[in-house]
Design a protein that fits this description.
The chain contains eight helices and eleven strands. The chain has about 350 residues and is of the alpha/beta class. It has two domains: about 160 residues, Rossmann fold, CATH 3.40.50; about 160 residues, no CATH class. The strands form two sheets. It has a six-stranded parallel sheet, with helices on both faces. Strands 7-11-10-9-8 form a five-stranded mixed sheet. Helix 3 links the parallel strand 4 and strand 5.
């Protein structure tokens, strides 16, 4: 399941001629290379096109308004028209991404301090994982030289995105997980794969302190409190958790999202059962003697209770200070397997 897309912002003719942005030909070459690698990997390429005013060089249906021919959008590649620096504001972008299951965005294009800056921040606030191609966005010189504007934003936007050179951006999706467990559906496997992608981001954050995982927390009580807040809206998770846990814990977005859809009348009982299962597996997530736990694939373990099954990754990493971090990352929550009564067959 592909959950990443390349978002090319305002890569329009007027940005490259007759008055090109800083390093215009080089930036255009990098945009073309990014689009080529994304297409080769089967990753959606989505174009955002600015619609200027009547006297602007990107006024609709003028020569400067068109997407640059070097990038040549394919017939099935979406073009999102916008009127502000925010590619999400009053556009269909969020709907296109939701329809395709996109949760990770690679951003490139123009202009650095306007549409790139605004869309990077907005995408992050909407919960997307954002990668910014550091050398594939540009602008015009103004109060500051263009090089300084670009360098400044590459530094500041690290708070919202993984900022890296275009050549280091990898569009190749991880292979589908090979897991062996009874009654896992295609939807379960797709969710596990999405969870594993989130786990890799989370583990990198633990190791280096860099990156922007969906769940930027480590204490398991934070998850317990978050689940409680789903059935008790007035309850607020604690601001700090001072007792050091033996196992730290992270969680994937795909694990939490379905829990908020449980009907309220059943929610407390259901989430209490999830919390009890989490407490149990944290006693020893790799317990070979437990009838409830088993390895079902590379990295992936299963906690199998009567009514539910927790899919998770137990791991040990060393952070940038050399500390050993024991973590459990919750990937997916699958329903339990109905127990058959042999006397009723």
């Amino acid at each position: 399941m592909i959950t990443i897309a390349l978002l090319l912002i305002d890569a329009q003719v007027n940005m490259f001629a007759p008055d090109p942005v800083h390093d215009g030909p080089v930036v255009l070459s990098r945009l073309k290379e990014l689009a080529g690698r994304a297409r080769a990997a089967g990753v959606p390429v989505i174009f955002v096109r600015h619609n200027g005013g009547p006297d602007d060089p990107d006024a609709p249906h003028t020569p400067g308004w068109a997407i640059h021919p070097a990038l040549a959008p394919a017939a099935d590649e979406a073009i999102i028209d916008k009127h502000t620096p925010d590619a999400f504001h009053q556009t269909g972008l969020a709907g296109v991404l939701a329809e395709r299951g996109i949760r990770r965005l690679v951003l490139a294009g123009m202009q650095t301090e306007y549409c790139i800056d605004t869309t990077t921040r907005r995408a992050r606030s909407l919960g997307y994982e954002v990668v910014l191609a550091a050398d594939a966005h540009s602008t015009y010189p103004g109060a500051l030289p263009a090089e300084q504007v670009i360098a400044h934003h590459n530094s500041v936007l690290k708070a919202f995105a993984d900022v890296r050179p275009a050549a280091e951006i990898d569009f190749q999706a991880a292979p589908p997980p090979v897991v062996t467990a009874e009654a896992l559906t295609t939807a379960d496997l797709a969710a596990i794969q999405s969870g594993l992608e989130e786990w890799r981001v989370y583990e990198q954050w633990l190791k280096t302190g860099e990156g922007h995982p969906f769940w930027p927390h480590t204490h398991p009580a934070r998850i317990s409190d978050t689940l409680r807040s789903l059935w008790e809206p007035s309850f607020k998770p604690r601001a700090r958790y001072t007792d050091p846990p033996r196992w730290e814990m992270g969680v994937a977005r795909v694990f939490l999202q379905p829990l908020a859809n449980i009907p309220m009348v059943f929610r407390r009982a259901s989430l209490t059962a999830v919390n009890k299962a989490i407490d149990h597996l944290l006693q020893n997530p790799r317990n070979p003697l437990s009838p409830h736990m088993s390895a079902i694939g590379e990295h992936v373990w299963l906690y199998d209770a009567r009514d539910l099954r927790l899919i998770y990754v137990p791991s040990v990493v060393h952070d940038k200070d050399g500390r050993e971090r024991h973590t459990v990352f919750l990937l997916w929550l699958a329903p339990g397997i109905p127990v058959k009564n042999p006397f009723l067959q």
